[in-house]
Amino acid sequence: MTEPAVQVPGMGTVHHLDDHRPTPPAEPVSLVKDPATEPTTPQTPSGPQGSRIVRTGRAVRRVATHDRTRTTARFAVRHGMYVVGGGRIVARRAWEGRTASRYERMLRAAEAAGNLDLATEWEERLSRFRAARHQRRMDLLSAPVKAAKGAAAAAGLTAGGLLVLGIFLAIANKNFADLATPTLALIELVRWIVVVITVVWGPLVTLGPWAALLALWGVGRHQQAAPQWVLPAQSADAGAPITPSVVVTALRDLGIAPLRQAVKEMGDAGAAMLGPIRIAGCGVEVDVTLPSGVATNEVQGRRRKLAENLARHEHEVFITIPQAARTVRLWIADSGALDEPIGPSPLLTDTTLTADYAKGRAPWGQDLRGDAALISLYQRHFLITGLSNQGKTAALRALALWLALDARVEFRIADLKGVGDWGMFDGLATVLIQGPTDDHVIEATEMLEGLVKEMERRIQAPPGTVFTPLIGIVDEAQVAFMCPVVDSEKRPYGGSKATSRYFMAARKIHNQGRAVDVLLYQGTQDPTDQNLPKLVREGAHTRASLALGTESQARMALGDKAVDGGAAPNLLRPGLDKGTVVVASDGIKIPAGQAAITVRTHYISTDDAAEVATRAKALRDGVTTLSAIDHGPDRDPLADIMTVLGDTSRVLTQDVLKRLAALSEDAYGEWSFLDLKRVLGGTGAEPYKSDGRMVIGRERLARHLANRDTEGSASVAE
């Protein structure tokens, strides 16, 4: 039987001695490590010792940055600072209790606040304190003599009393030794007191300092006398009531050094800065008179920090500038109140409601105080701006719906969004253009030019003529301003230059339309100098803005005066503050001293708007709505000029104008020499002088018409 072979590491296979099979030679054993086969171990530049140092450093760092270590360190620092802060507070109280520093601090605060009566009162208190202190110091001079006399008298009385008591005891007990019993009893009492003090004194000496530290710790903890970063996290005090101390603390912690110093020096802890806190709608309102050296715009610029100091969100605090000097007015909403919807529009709740363009006010919504926001639209051009999808169309349409309840008002509307937001005005408006294309912009521009012609006709009417209101509305007006199309006379429809047809029509209406009740309402998105030129936006009497992105846009929307006075549509929350507008106008009641007011508008859905429009249509006899501008029959000015020239080789320009007017009064009745020059420009048939008078040559015009017909012929193209 053959023994199995044994596998030995490094020596190959070893067979048993009884195995007679040949044994293969063993592989040579190398005593040198092979770098190619030996696993590599990363080494630090310092070798094993350096590796231990790195591991130790990492362990120390891990321990030092661990949350438990940080919590422990903050705990130790916090309670240590409670002791230090408590000692500082106790020392300050002791110092103020023994000196006149408290009175002097109150006196300086009263003088800083300009309250002379209070300053006089504290000066009198200071005088009385100093007089009493002087009297106490004078009494201390005679105190030793009085104390010695008092001690001698007390000792004599005590000894005499003990002697009398001993005599009574001796007589009662018929023992002369009892005469000294009361004295011996007093001596024994003193001995026991000394024994007790001797026993207790050691622990008292040991525990006394710790008791003092504990007392200081208690004072510091109660006053939270530790750095803010080590204090424990506190639950948010959202919705806390607004009290004078809360307002003053919030102002003190704004980071304005002069304001903080002034509050610190005021004896009443800054309460003199505040007016009465008044309930105002879903919040409170308070006027703050700032101390000297603090500007109102410094407080305005820290609105977010002030709101957070008041445990409110930024949108729940509004800062305006009233008429009083160095004063800011704070309106602080109840926590979460502005996120609650307001009630429905009176246009929906009161089906008998009517409007009066001249004397009435549109129920647009509520101000932040919860009062109804009523706005007059009489002879006021209107502009509303905002970011997309913030309720601009709904806010503008709500005003138009109210006006529609006055049967005298005529509407001409161009909706350059074209998704049906103004469809309910079909049958109310005499013109209703709906669509975003360049063709719709052309129609909207011609609609405005029609308003200009009607305005000029009214201006030239006899004095005293009464006109019905004519309201032109262009929603998404930025589409018109940005339109790149030019007409046949190379005049652009869009743009912000004098050559722009839309721009010039809007400017003309702004300049003179108000006097004859021809008004322009425009709504636009994301205002810039390109899509809302300065001259157009400044021509509006009522300017409103929903949420915007930047302060520069807010200035474009409302003007510098409103923004400098505290208006901040750029701080409204996009999406959350839909329908909330900041309004600058003399047509709405604005608190005295403010330049703008914030209004939460009533939302009227498209379906509800259709119901209101149906009621408005019932007030009218019937209105035919045009979806495009009626230009009459198309005419070719060059062909008409050729017609009126007849067979005459040259005709005076004055006679050409008369003949054109006779040919078509509607098309050429208002033409002038400039119109002739414009139409003939570039044709080679421009008016020229002959015998010192301007004429038009028939042969030149005929040559141009012949070339034009040839260029447009299909046979030539083939």
Notes on the structure:
The protein has a ten-stranded mixed beta sheet with strand order 8-7-16-15-14-9-13-12-10-11. A four-stranded antiparallel beta sheet has the order 3-4-6-5. It is α/β, with parallel strands linked by helices and 718 residues long. The longest helix has 58 residues, at 116-173. α2 (67-98) crosses α5 and α19 (637-645) crosses α20.
Largest sheet: 10 strands, mixed
Structure classification: alpha/beta
Give helix % range.
Answer: 40-55%
Shape: elongated
End-to-end Cα distance, whole Å, is 114 Å
Number of discrete helical segments: 24
Radius of gyration: 48 Å
The pLDDT mean sits at 83
**Order of strands across the main sheet:** 8-7-16-15-14-9-13-12-10-11
Low-pLDDT segments, ≥5 res: 1-21, 29-33, 37-44, 712-718
**DSSP E strands, number:** 19
Kindly estimate the percentage of residues that lie in beta strands according to DSSP. Answer: 5-15%
